[in-house]
Amino acid sequence: MKVLGLETSCDETGLAIFDSEQINSGNQGLLGQVLYSQIELHALYGGVVPELASRDHIRKLVPLFHELLEQCKISKDEIDAIAYTKGPGLIGALMTGALFGRSLAYGLDIPSIGIHHMEGHLLAPLMGANPPDFPFVSLLVSGGHTLLIAARGVGEYEILGESIDDAAGECFDKAAKMLGLAYPGGPNIAKLAETGDANAYSLPRPMLHRGLDFSFSGMKTAVHNLIKDTPGSGMGSASDPQVRADIAASFQHAVVDTLVKKCVKALKQADMSRLVIAGGVSANSHLRTTLETELAKINATVHYAPPALCTDNGAMIAYAGYQRLQAGQADDLAVSCVPRWPMTELPAL
Ligand code: KG4
Ligand code: ZN
After folding, report:
1. CA of 103 to the centre of ligand 2 (A)
2. Are 127 and 306 in contact (CB under 8 A)?
């Protein structure tokens, strides 16, 4: 089954074609994928402007679709089904992909299905020839969400913990901004941290001993104070590159340490031995290597997608769509998008 996936929930227009018959191809079953990021468009305003995001998705969807067909060397008639992001996200942005996907499916007389963006992230590490088996604990860490989930099957999700304020990715983005680094901050902090000493400064590990919920707003304040009080941390002429690298490394280490400790706790609580990490922050290599070391100590394993499938993309939507479509699920003609959508409301297969 060839499934076209469309992701337009925020500031990336992502399209991909997943082919279940190519699952052993070594390419995650992907025939091809295209991604257009609106980062430059929104950079001027210091954050995503919803109306501009919707307009840009509309401008890009059709040309990207043609580019994808060319890349995959197939015609549109060879597509068997279409999956689009139905929520959560910016309503206008979601509507562009949903309406494009639903109309195209109608025109081609094929089924379509609306997908939960975070389920797309959650299932992305399962793409490919040797996916980890259910059940597993999933750590979903993106720009908008920090969730620990016990996943017992597709659509069988129990929330074990979540952030009570900022998401982990948001915390990376805000710390990056304070250091004068560009959005998205995660990869830029990670780069700067490469030459830094992670133990140079001590930053808090919020809510470490309180259940499985997270809180990152205190971390943000701590970084703010650290930058304010540390000579050389700024961008100007008095800037000290080593001080800046040490701050980035200490910050990254504090976030990663907090995430890892909660993951270990969640695995023990759920009595599970597999951890699957997903969402933009799961691309962080310090997080990946620390989890590998710490989980080995408790005989647990960690699984993740290649970096390009961790951040927003159309492939994860195509794959989640495939899982649901092959179980007989599909949407009717009505298009409804949901800006807020708890994952626990999703139907099981
Ligand atoms: O999943 P995603 O692409 O979009 C949302 O659904 O939010 O996640 C984006 C977030 C941003 O906050 C970005 O800074 C963070 O993921 N991120 C990273 C890395 N790559 C992306 N954070 C830390 N390290 C990275 N390498
Ligand atoms: Zn995302």
Report:
1. 24
2. no
pLDDT 10s digit of each residue in the chain, 349 long? 999 999 999 999 999 999 999 998 889 999 999 999 999 999 888 789 999 999 999 999 999 999 999 999 999 999 999 999 999 999 999 999 999 999 999 999 999 999 999 999 999 999 988 899 999 999 999 999 999 999 999 999 999 999 999 999 999 999 999 999 998 899 999 999 999 999 999 999 989 888 999 999 999 999 999 999 999 998 888 899 999 999 999 999 999 999 999 999 999 999 999 999 999 999 999 999 999 999 999 999 999 999 999 999 999 999 999 999 999 999 999 999 999 999 999 999 9
Backbone angles phi, psi at 259, to 5 degrees: -60, -45
73 in helix, strand or coil? Answer: coil
pTM of the predicted model as reported, rounded to 2 decimal places: 0.97
Residue type, 211: G
State how beta strands 274-278 and 136-141 pair: parallel
* 233-270: burial string, b at 16+ Cβ within 10 Å, e else: bbeeeeeeeebbbbbbbbbbbbbbbbbbebbbbbbeeb
Q: Which residues line ligand 1 (CB under 6 A)?
A: 121, 142-144, 169-170, 172-173, 184-187, 190, 279-281, 283-284, 311-312
Distance 310 CA to ligand 1 centre (A): 8
From atom 3 of ligand 1, which residue's Cα is the shortest distance away? 311
